[in-house]
Structure formats: structure tokens, C-alpha cells
Write a structure and sequence with these properties.
homotetramer; 383 residues; alpha+beta; Chorismate synthase, AroC fold; 21% strand
């Protein structure tokens, strides 16, 4: 912990690029001209549905009192890689111009590092040259192009009957019901969640969660939660050993979302308290297919899918932007200071984060599926 | 979940390669000629200490009744990249020849997929061509070269006073004490854990854990646990935004270890139940340095280090190799079958996994530190 | 050569991404909405000079009778990564909107594969889904964002006194004088070439070349040539062994430019006719510095710079778009056909390609310099 | 050129890793314990033929008076990734132990930088920590594992009827005949060259070349040459745009071989003197297949294969190890010095380099073919 300040003089770069087969290159800042992403590696001949992209963008948008009041049209402009409604096979650039740029809120307190935000760490890393307005490149706004990219991937997976869905299994300490173990019902629940803005299975839990968020907002405070995601119909044999296992691939993507602080697969931390005889999932044949009787391992053995549903839980910390006075330091003088955040902020982002997590999972799985089956698997028939 | 079998006819590759700055290329199988790793990207002029490598290898070795009876010399042979005791700056190949290859144990039951192992999934992925003996490339044996590579990285970090240590904070449901919040004491605890084979802070907890493991062994069963790791003195400003954040980088590496099913940073899943006013870590100046009053976020803001200790918890599932009869399928006939595992297996691998996790964390941090400071930071002075 | 058609049914992706340290992700099509590039990996605090970017764009623009009549403003819009005139250290997106989109020229003959263009090969690769207008993603127009990215890199190198310059050493069979062997004069020549649109050292050769181009234009034909490039003041010790040697790195980038069909370093193919005693460059000390008496190897030994000028020659084939009738096939019917190209085309692109090659060299060297010195070398001082 | 010495204090890494789909990680030094390569990304179920690997190793071995007298068994040991004669789909490590380590030859003159070798540049780069014996990691000996890896790839390509062959089209100024334009005869010539140690089409040219080499040897001198390579039956549509075009991919690999100073595709530098009407290759249908009437572009349009033979010429400089006294500097004192090389060296390496170039081409094409068709294309049928 010594010397953390003395290396403020060291500069470096950042790498907002991911993917072995499907390359994503993310760009933009919260209050810059635009945010966007270049997607390199999708097959030609895939239909692109702008209305589905917009549907996903809308799930991420702030709505009502439980969200920030910043309003962005979030209209996705396709700059390249799509021709006559289909992917060409060449890089796709998706761009969203920023419209609501109230930068003056930030200039006022630009030297006061917001606790648990990237203000201090980015200042250390970028030597003070970072765009400090609204978190710059570290803003949650950067998840907008990721949702757009994720929409392309979700669409692609759906064309192979691979379905992804999530619900808020806990918000502000209030628990939702679990996803059903019955595949037919689970499929219906996924479908319902994908159409719901505040994705909770149990309506009563939903109401209590929203009340708790409203309560936190009134107190100038914020709350967090846990998102449970499930992937249905992923074929067995997907995922690479070691560094590109399903867990490695998806956790890297999920943890890249700002507020995520924990990820577990299957029964996760609960597995660590079981015995092997309880934790092992016995194989058996069912209607000519291989299944497991239980699914404690979340559909993954040795990093590779076994054909059962992939189960993931992701912990989202409470939004760090709160309106209560906070102790901090001044980055210009390195003296203690008090901060009172103004501007427009979310008392809870768990419900908005849900669609971001779905997108990250979809991006990771498309990457692994291309690695496994090659591009042909997704391409359109020859014209 | 349909069709998981029908694509048994699709082949693919695997990628046992990792790292943006420090490239690791892992190879080998449990019962093949050798396991090893090529490390490309270390600076020249770094002293290599074979005795420290061996010390780390010994922490990973099975010992006593609580481990497998397979005994390997695990002598690491340096094939390249080290000259007159120093790194040359060119690729380092570390190789460990396999000696104890009792393959016959496996041939007998090679078609019976061991539940929660990679037998079924690897068979799907590799079309039946995988080396099935002892899990082949998916064996825990592959962590031996990772520990050797990690030893180089741990040594390198130590030369910069960056210290990594772990303890078993839970095994078989028995909890250890927490790491101290006091930096001086924490440093001493890290040092102590790094010299201890069964790394538990509280001797009573240690004894109970070992009794529980012994108990599980007698029942032909196994247990899991949680490892808590801490990184001390990591400078502020390390980590890249998004896909190469500290959390993304380390979780990718940690989840690549076979038995890991959950990873959290700072208070992790517990953060998801806090309010922002509790979860935020206020900054303040202390003896001319920036510190935070609490450390709920585990020393990471926006994916970048803030100079406070990095805190990580990793969930390890119980070893899937148990001696009780298990239901499974026959991979040759796709019929239900019963399996009774023989051979030599661990009733618990949490204590052996500890040094593997330390190694993965070290590898990830060296990668990020090179990205931040360039190679010069680690290189020896010109000869 | 058999079966080249039968796999028309196989689709695939493309990867328009490059760089180990400095990631470039290129996007766009000739007649799409925009072309652009995301540059990830530049240090923070580097001054960005839009007027220099525009200067370079102007060197690439068609001018006069010796070029295509397509006129584009080629105004580079910086979408991200630059704040208050300086790089932030986060990804830079440079976008150029397409304005002059006379697509109808192409629709007419879209099924007639232009010989030596990518029409047929892209149709095979992308199953007919490629944007065929003006070559789509394969158009020379994609070199515009590369020149913009190259301008950032050239500027960066200049700040370290590393200078790149090129002249047309041969066009239409007419030879220019050679670059001077005297460093002071060479520096002056580089400077002069960097300000010259049609970069030829000898004015008489320049005039003859332009006459030959004009002649070719009148005949509906085209001509090619050779560009000689030189890099001055590159420190010794830059370049990686094997796959990332200076030659490997730069040739990969140079051959990515459409019309390039040959690359040589130092005396290149002429070296293959020398004896070792002639080809070797003896070392000696000169004013306390290491120099070589000759420079047949173009400043590179074992793939690494030795401090002498880097010398590169790049062969550019004649523009394939000619106005004479050509034999070809119809991609819709796979029958023989005759093609008469219309539209706006260059009778020679060697002079315009020059600045593209300079850009590619600059991009490659910044990549290798970051690998060698880390980012700090280029970063601005802490604010 | 200034300051090339002053940064002798800067250290860095090297990256001996290549490939987008097929990862190669090369390791070893000329006089270290072993040289080798890890190959990650080959499909499962591919038969491995050790005798073909050895056949290729033998083509690379020094033989007779025209080669170095260093004799190595060059026995390739397969450490992993092959099981029961087939690839498993997991990483393959090929290792060759060094036997003939006459290090004392080098210790004597270790501070005298051999002109046109990597001695000086490696010393700058690695701060003096490099293994100086016999060029260390920069030795031609490192091409041995590349030939072994190339053998796997050549074998793989052959299983798809994709054939690669080369001849020495010029050695010491003496020209060989050209490859035949007739496909049937070309196929026969490729086959013949692949069985010939000194691969020249015309026996008289062969004899003259060998006499010239012998002559150079007697004079303590060396000679260079040009290798012409051809790829037959590569399907149309292979290669990525821009940075991963066939030319970019293959040139990066070819230039990674130490002595290569020039690479051209099709008519290469000669194309730069043609007019477009001569240089363009008209398409036409022939027996239901697309062909071009001429092949000036070497089977590549826009970086992608068109189904015609790929044609490549590679310039190899004369071996820098000559026995005549040479002027150089002393790396310990930075003073002028005279060097007289001893030890065992080749007066010509063009004939031995041939099989290395074939290997590099094969490695590059397998990488591009996996990118295009996915792994399934190469995998064995399900067991």
C-alpha cells in the first residue's frame, strides 16, 4: 500500500478490446461525441433486425423514478458491415451519438474523487488526461454499445435455438423466486423476462424491490442485487480448456461491467460447502439424450458445456453515486475534502444491468461457438 | 438441452494460451510424456531461483492421508530462456516429465464418464480422440507447470515488494479466522501462509478441517472449500478498463483452474446486499498517501487498483473423484451404467489448490504490470 | 486449382484488426455510410494536431488529371479518446463520412468480376453478401482511415525525432534518383518529400512520370511503380525475434495495402546475388556511436534495428481499373463475359499510395516501440 | 541514427508467438538444452506421421561439403497432444534436444559482434543477458522445430490435396528453369522437389550452383539466392482482407526466417513495370471452373485466393558467417576490433532454407483455412 501515489507519473494505455474469434473494439466517453463498438468476425448473410437492437436498448434505458433522469435517444447507427439488411462478413461499426451532455455538473467537482468510482484510479493511470466528465470511458454509458453488439449475438443464438434469460434474484435484500427446474416452464420464464423491463419472476417481490429502491432514492442512497442468468439449449462440447473455459470466458466479460463484484456458476459458493457425493451430477440417458439428474455444476464440466442449462449468478454492488455527503480527497491538492454529488444518478442499476449481462453472455458464447464450429455454422446460405 | 449428442460429430480445437503481455502456452497430459509451459514475454536479467520454484512445487504436492497417493518428483527442467541463472528475455520453457503413469487404472473404465469430470464433455468436443487417461489435458496435473510459471511471477512481484498470500478461509464448512486488517500483521500472516503446507491461520480450525477431510476420505467422499487471497502493495493505477480490468483478468485465470466455481472481489456477493452509503470506501490522506477508510471494494475501483490490498475469494468444489458408486453413462454405448472409481485420488484439493490460485493471481498481475509500466520495470540492469 | 468454385457455399469472417500493443480495428465500405478506425493503446497526454492529420489526408487525395475524379472532403471526425486537444489514453475512434456515393455506376455491372480486383474472391468468401459497390470493404477508400491513424503515429515518432519519408523510385519504368547516403542531406530530402504531393526527388523524372501516367490515362490503361521508404533515427534494439521482427511486422502491414505485390528490406533481392563478404555491413565506432560502414541490410540485423536507417522498397502493381474491354466471368451465371469498366478511376496510384505506406510503417514502428519501451516513452508529463 | 547506444539500458521482451487460429509458441537456443515449439489449435483425429516429420527434418539438415559440419540427430520428441498416433485436439509440444554443443568456439569471441548477425542488436535489446552462444534464440537452429511444426501442416494440407513445393530459382547468380505453367507437370515437379535435398529443376544449374557454393567455401566466403514456391489447389476464397491477407500472413512468416530480405507474390517487382492491361489476369470458365488466362497476380486478388496457383519468391541473403577477417566492434569496450570467425558454418543456406519456407507457408495457410472453414474441415471422423 505504500507508494500508491508516487507512481502517478507513470502513464499507460488501456485495452478495450476482447474476443478470440469475435473481436469487439469499444470506444467512447460518457460526455464525448459518441460511444460505439466495432465487431469484427461475424459471418456473412446474417439478417440484422434494427427493431430488436432497439428493443434491447430500451431494456437498458433509465425509466421512471427508480432510474437516472438523464434521457438519451440511444439510437444505434450502423456505419458499416450491413448491406441490404444482412451482415456482409466485414466489420460492423455500431455508433450511438451522445445528446444529453450536461457537462457543467462535472466541471464543478472535477477534482473531488467520487468514492468507489474510477475517478481516483483513472487519474493515477492516465496522469490526469482522462475525460473526467461523467466517468469518461469508465461510464456505464459504455454499456450501451455493448447491448447493441449483444443484440446481434442474442439474435444469432436464437437462430440456433440457444436462449439466454435473466431475472433479478435479489435486490436490496429482497429475494425473487427461483427459475423453474422444468425446461418447458423455464423456457416460458426466459421468454417473459426478455420482455420485462424490471425482470422479476414474482410480482410481489418485484413490488417490494421497487419500493426499496424508491426508499433508497428518497434517502439519497442506493442499493445493489444479484442477477441470475440461464442459457438453454447450448450444445454439449462448447468451451475450451483452461483459459478459455466457459467460466473463464464469461467471467472475464461479466466482470468487465463496472458494478460486478462476484460471479458464480451452478451452485457456486454453495458448492464449496457440499460433499462430492452431493455435488456430483450423475449422468443418465433420457429419451436418447444425455442429461444429468441434478445440475449443481451449472451445465459445465471441465470448462465445457454438457448440454444442461448454464446457470450463472452475478453480484452487482449498489450504485456508488449517492447524494449523501462523503469523505474524499482532492486530486489537485491531495488534501482531504468533502463531496456532495449532484447531477442525475440511479438509486439502483440492477434492473438495467440485467440486459448488459445477457449481452456479455451472448458475446462470449458466440465467440466460443465460432471457435468450436467455425463461422459456417452461423452464415447465411449462398445467395 | 436437445441435440447435445447429435453434434458429437463436430470437432474443434482448444486454446491453452493466455496473456496479453506475458504469453503462456500450456501443454501436456496427465499420463503423457510430460507437462509444461512456454512463457514468452519476461524481461532479460531477472534472477531465476530454482529452489523457490521447487518450494512452490512442494506446496502443490500431495502429502499425507488427506491427499492422493500418486507421488511425482515434479522436478522442473528449464529447457530455454535462462542463461547463467538469469532470464535472457527470450521464451522460457519449463518441463516436468511424468513418472508415475499407472495407466491401467483408467483403461478399465475408460468408457464410463466420471460425473462432474470432463470425460463426457471432452469426448463430445474431441470426437473421442482425447487422451482419456487420468483426465488427459484436463487433469489437475496441468496445474504443476502453472505453479512453476507462477513461481517466476511471484518472485518478480516480490522484487517490487508486491506480496501475494492466501489461506483456506473455509473447508468442509469449517471457517478459519479472517486475515488481519492491520497491514503489518497482514504482511506477517502472508509470509506465514506462504511457508505453510495446509494454509490456515487458526490452528484449531486447521485441525478440525483436516479431521473433516480424513472423515470424508474414510467415507469414500470428498469436501470443498473457499480460499481467500490478498495482494499487498500493488501500486494504484494498475488494470485496464472493461475486458482487462483486474477483476476480468484475474477471474479468467482463476476460473481456468478446474474446480473453481465462484470468484468474488472485496465483499463480493455481500456487497449486493449493502446500501451505497455503506459499500462506498471513503478516500482520505494518511501520512501523505491516499488510503480508503474501509475496503469493501477489495482495492479495485473501476477495474483499476487504488493502492489498498486486493481481496479475492475463490470457491473450490469438492473433488469429483469419490469412491462411492455413481450413476453415469457409457460413452461407447450411450447406455446407463454404474461407476465405481478406483485409482489414487484426493478427498480434498483446497489446500493444494491454494498455491495454484496464488500462481494465477501472480501471472495475471505481471501481465497487467507490464501493460502499465512496460518491461523495463522488471528488467535487470545492463550487464 | 480444382474445386475453387464448389466451395462457394462456405462462408467465413474477416479480421480487419492488427497490432500487438497498438490495436487497430478498421471498418467501412467504399459506398457505405462511413469509413473509420478505432485505435486502442496510445498513451495519455499526447497532443493531437488535426491540421497534420488533414495534411496527410490531402497527400492521399486524388488531384489533377493523373487521379480519379471522385472528390471526397475526407474530413476526419474524432469521436472519442481525445480531450482538450490531448489523447486521454482510451480508444480513439476516427471516422470519415462518405459523401460522393455514385452507386449506380456499380449496380449496372455488379455481376461482372473486374479482373485483378477482389470482386470474384470476395464473392466466393462472403457467399454473395459483400457490399459490391466500389469494392466495398476492399476499396482503396479504406486506406483513408489508415492514413489518419498513421498521422497520429508519425506525429508521435517525430516527437522522438524518428523520421519516415518516401519517394517514388520508379513509376511506369522511369527511375528517380536514390535517397542520399549522407544523413544530413537525407533528412532534408525526407522533409521535402513529406511536403510534396507527387514525391519524386529528381524534377525531370517527376515530369516524365507524370507524362507517362497521362499517356496511360489517355489509352484507358494504368501504370505501377516502386516506393522507397526510409526511417531515420530509429534506436538500436527495436524489433522482436521471429514473427515480430521489423521485417515481419512491416511487411504484414505493407502487404495489407491492396496493390502491393513485393516488399524488400535493404538491398533485398539484390542481396541474393552478392557474396557474404560484400553483403555484410562492418561495424565501427564513429563519434562514440556504433555505425555500419555500408547498409546493405537496411538497418536491420536478426530482425532488430541496429541504429542505421531502415530502408524499404515496396512494389505497387498498376491499378486494375482500366477502361479497355476485358474478358471476365459473370458471377450470377458463371459464364464468360466482356467487361468495360466505367466510373472514376486512377491511371496510377503510386503517388497516392506513398502516404499510405508511410502510415503503415509508422503504425508498425509505434507498435514495436511500445513493446520495447512501454507506453511511458510516449506519454505526456503528469498534469 | 543518433543515440542508438544510449538506450542500451532499456530492456524488453520478445514475442516468439504467432497465429490467429493455429498458435505457435517457439522456444530454445542454439546451445541450450533443447529447441521446440508448442502448437495449439489443431483439430482432433489427425494422423501424425513421425517418418514424414523426420523426412522434412532431413531436408533441413546440413549435408556434404556445402553445409556446416555441425551434426545433430534432430530427433523430434512429441511430448504431448498426440495419442495412439492421432492428434488429440490439445496442444502439441515438439522438442528437439541439442546434442552438439561446442560452446567453447563462441566464448572466445563472445564480445566481437559478427557483422550482419544479431549479436549487436540482441545485446542492445537484452542488455547483455542473451545467450550469446551460436546466436542463442536467433540461431538458424530455431528453424528446426518450425520444420517439425510445418511437417504437421504440410501433411494436413496434403490430406486436402493442397500441395506446396519450392525450388532454388537462383543461387550465386545461377538461374534454374522456371516451374511449368502446365498444372499436371507442375504437380510432378512439386512432387520431385519435395524428395530432393538440393531442390533445383535443371540438373545442369544444380551442378553449377553447387560448384559456386564449393568455390565460395574455399574462399571463406558465402552466397545467397532466391527460392520460388508454389501452392497448388488452394480453394478460392481463402485469406482475410487487409492485415490478414494471404500476402500479409505469408510475408510475416517468411520474413521471420533470419536470412530473408525480400518477398514477392506473382510477378512481384516486375508487376510494378507493367501496364494494367498487361498485368490484369482475365477470368474465364474452363471445364466448369473459374480460371485466369494468365497468373501475374500469383493466385491472389485483394488478398484472397482465386483458385489459381499461389506463386511466391523469397530472397535469401548470403550467410553472414564467413571466414574472412571482418571489421567490427567489441561489445564490452565499444572499440573497433577485427573478427575472424571460427566454428562450423554454411557457405550457403538457400537449399536448407527451402524446407523452412515451405513450412512457413504451410503454417500460414492452415491458419487461414481454419479461419475460413473452421476446425471441422481438418478433424478426423468421430471415433
Amino acid at each position: 500500500m505504500e507508494d500508491n501515489q508516487s507512481d502517478a507519473g507513470k502513464g499507460t494505455t488501456m485495452k478495450s478490446t476482447i474476443g478470440n474469434q469475435l473481436h469487439l473494439s469499444l470506444f467512447g466517453e460518457s460526455h464525448g461525441a459518441a460511444v460505439g463498438v466495432v465487431i469484427d468476425g461475424l459471418a456473412p448473410g446474417i439478417p440484422v433486425h434494427p427493431e430488436f437492437i432497439q428493443h434491447q436498448m430500451d431494456l437498458r434505458k433509465p425509466k421512471g423514478k427508480i432510474s437516472t433522469q438523464r434521457q438519451e435517444a440511444d439510437q444505434v447507427r450502423i456505419l458499416s458491415g450491413v448491406f441490404e439488411g444482412m451482415t456482409t462478413g466485414t466489420p460492423i461499426c455500431l455508433m450511438i451519438e451522445n445528446q444529453s451532455q450536461q457537462s457543467r455538473d462535472y466541471a464543478k467537482s472535477k477534482d473531488l474523487a467520487r468514492p468507489s468510482h474510477a475517478d481516483y484510479t483513472a487519474n493515477e493511470k492516465y496522469r490526469g488526461y482522462q475525460d473526467y466528465r461523467g466517468g469518461g470511458h469508465f461510464s456505464g454509458r459504455l454499456t450501451a454499445p455493448l447491448v447493441a453488439a449483444g443484440a446481434l449475438c442474442l439474435d444469432l443464438l436464437k437462430s440456433k435455438d440457444i436462449l439466454i434469460g435473466s431475472h433479478l434474484c435479489q435486490v436490496a435484500g429482497i429475494e425473487d423466486d427461483s427459475f423453474s427446474a422444468d425446461f418447458k416452464q423455464l423456457k416460458e420464464e426466459i421468454s417473459r423476462m426478455n420482455e420485462t423491463y424490471f425482470a422479476v419472476l414474482n410480482p410481489k417481490a418485484q413490488q417490494k424491490m421497487q419500493e426499496a429502491i424508491e426508499q433508497a432514492r428518497k434517502q439519497g442512497d442506493s442499493v445493489g442485487g444479484v442477477v441470475e442468468s440461464v442459457v438453454l439449449h447450448l450444445p454439449a462440447g462448447v468451451g475450451e480448456p483452461f483459459f478459455h473455459s466457459i467460466e473463464s470466458t464469461l467471467s472475464q466479460l461479466l466482470f468487465s461491467v463496472g458494478a460486478v463484484k462476484g460471479v458464480e456458476f451452478g451452485d457456486g459458493f454453495a458448492l464449496a460447502r457440499m460433499t462430492g457425493s452431493k455435488a456430483n451430477d450423475p449422468f443418465r440417458m433420457e429419451n436418447g439424450r444425455v442429461v444429468t439428474s441434478t445440475n449443481h455444476n451449472g451445465g459445465i464440466n471441465g470448462g465445457i458445456s454438457n448440454g444442461m442449462p448454464i446457470r450463472i449468478k452475478t453480484a452487482i454492488k449498489p450504485t456508488p453515486s449517492i447524494y449523501q455527503p462523503q469523505q474524499t480527497i482532492n486530486l489537485a491538492t491531495y488534501e482531504n475534502a468533502e463531496l456532495k454529488i449532484e447531477g442525475r444518478h440511479d438509486p439502483c442499476i440492477v434492473h438495467r444491468a440485467r440486459v448488459v449481462l445477457d449481452s456479455m453472455i451472448a458475446i462470449g458464447l458466440v465467440d466460443l461457438l465460432i471457435e468450436r464450429y467455425g463461422l459456417m455454422w452461423f452464415a447465411g446460405d449462398p445467395k
